[in-house]
Amino acid sequence: MKRIGVLTTGGDAPGMNAAIRAVVRTAISHGIEVTGVEKGYSGLYDKSFLKLNSRSVSGIINKAGTFLKTKRFPEFKKIEVRRQCHQNLLDAGVEGLVVIGGDGSARGAYQFSSDFDFPVVLIPASIDNDLYGTDFTVGFDTAVNTAVSAVDNIRDTATSHDRTFVIEVMGREKGNLAVEVAVACGAEIVIIPEVKLENREIVSLLKEQDKKGKTSSIIILAEGAGRANELAAFLQTEFPNRQIRYSVLGYIQRGGSPTYLTRVLAAQFGTAAVELLQKRKYPFMTGIKGNEIVYIPLKDVVSRSKDIPAKHLEIVKNMAI
Ligand code: ADP
């Protein structure tokens, strides 16, 4: 393979830059040229291509976000749009593609590779850690750490004032982030989209905690399981003598300098992705299982769903006594 392309698409995640850097430098060290594609799949359509060299990726390993930019591009679901993208890649002499992104990006990557038998490898990058086949995605560890530090700060004030806090974290469809944050912060309750708790169950859990002498508590709510303001308002009517507050962590969870784990994973995945393309193994996703770098067929990634983090949910429950 003489030239490959690299793009970032979907929601941004810390470590995308470190992954691009790893792809570019691995490829160049193997004598492969690299074309950067700006703004995700839309850059394939608009021919937003730039030649990348080792210096193009200097000084970005510690920066969140993606210097290639990312964009949502629903038009990529149309075959005629994908056909044009394919032609543009052929015209530019690009023989393989590394896609860095999340769940939706995986669907696009699988579709594109299947349509044209084009070599595509996905590097999973997502703060949601919601892709089947890998223990971790690039960016997840950083987002969890950012949220943990914010929740710790909120706990300081919650404890001082005997307050109950509902804290909303990201996670529209999956609660992996919420559950990890809940375990790490010692939250009393965690509510995720996959296992929604009824309001009356939340009330009875808080009543139990009252009986055990707990004067403040933290409830972690994944955004896909409800809104923090609504839950806080409801709980305030149920517990008029408690001070119920809420906080929505929001976009801070996407930013911040990537943690060591995120950067190392980006380096491992970037290296593995280029090696897969070199061997013409596609369409695959790079992943990590235990401590091993593994390759998962994209067909499985798009057709199967990651398990609920049941053991960690259990830990939250057992520790809330
Ligand atoms: P993420 O990868 O973070 O989950 P999105 O769900 O927005 O983000 O997906 C990123 C992009 O992938 C979309 O904007 C679209 O261009 C492409 N995409 C998503 N689903 C499909 C699909 N079924 N077929 C083709 N392209 C898709």
Helix content: 40-55%
The value of Rg in angstroms is 22 Å
Number of strands: 11
Low-confidence stretches: none
Task: List the secondary-structure elements in sequence, H or E.
Answer: EHEHEHEHEHEHEHEHEHEEHH
Largest beta-sheet characterization: 7 strands, mixed
Please identify the structural class as seen in this structure. alpha/beta
Mean pLDDT: 96
Instruction: Indicate the CATH topology of the largest domain.
Output: Rossmann fold
Number of domains: 2
CATH architecture descriptor name of the largest domain: 3-Layer(aba) Sandwich
Q: What's the number of helices?
A: 11
The distinct ligands, each listed once, are: adenosine-5'-diphosphate
Query: Distance between the terminal alpha carbons, to the nearest Å?
Result: 58 Å
Which CATH C-level class of the largest domain is it? Alpha Beta
